[in-house]
Amino acid sequence: MANRHEDLTRLLRALQLHHTAVGVDELALRAAKEGLTHAAFLYELVQQEVAYREQRRFERLLRASRLPREKTFTQLDLSPFGPLLAQQIERLREGTFVQQAVNVIAVGKPGTGKSHVTAAVGHVLVAQGQSVYWTSTAALVQHLLAAKRDLRLPRELARLDRFGCVILDDIGYVQHSRDEMEVLFTFLAERYERRSVILTTNLVFSEWDRIFKDPMTTMAAIDRVVHHSVILDMMGLESYRAKEASAQKAASAASLTPA
To answer: What's the whole-model pTM score?
Structure first.
């Protein structure tokens, strides 16, 4: 029996079932106590291995995504967004837009929750087993520019292409030089109709010439981003930071008012 146990452990490890090899003794004891059939024992064994692998995959995807851990739907109140915008966000949670290579553009003033919404969608996608990459636009542009200088741009674009969805935060804050604008446009053009991009911006499309400088390049970039896209119009929302500041000011004033 000892040799059979050793052989079983060795075979499980040979099949890359390392988690099963560790837990097989405990499960065998439970199966004996509960009188599980061979089929039921095998089912429990396989189910544990699958659950373990799914958890490991989730952890790898989450690490690779670089998503801000605190920006999830658990911490997000959708009520200030209104019914139409909330409905759009709920549909994004289904994740089908990634398979369809649809882009998402969240347009709004600073503090309206663009980054939180898009990061929360990213967390849902990771939980579904989809590959996501979160980065500020400034960081991505500098990374691509360095890759171009080192003649590694095609390799870096191929690496980013492995992600089903890339989330670019704050595209409107970066005022690009021509070289920076070119690598950003190249990135967007490479993913056009093949991979999803989620963008947050505080600039309406008529102001995107601040980013891409040249009118023709601006038009081409907008065309590629907007074609097959969902636009989250958050321009009419009030900044939550401004609301918090107003509430704190009111509370402070109330505390100073004599009873």
So the answer is: 0.82
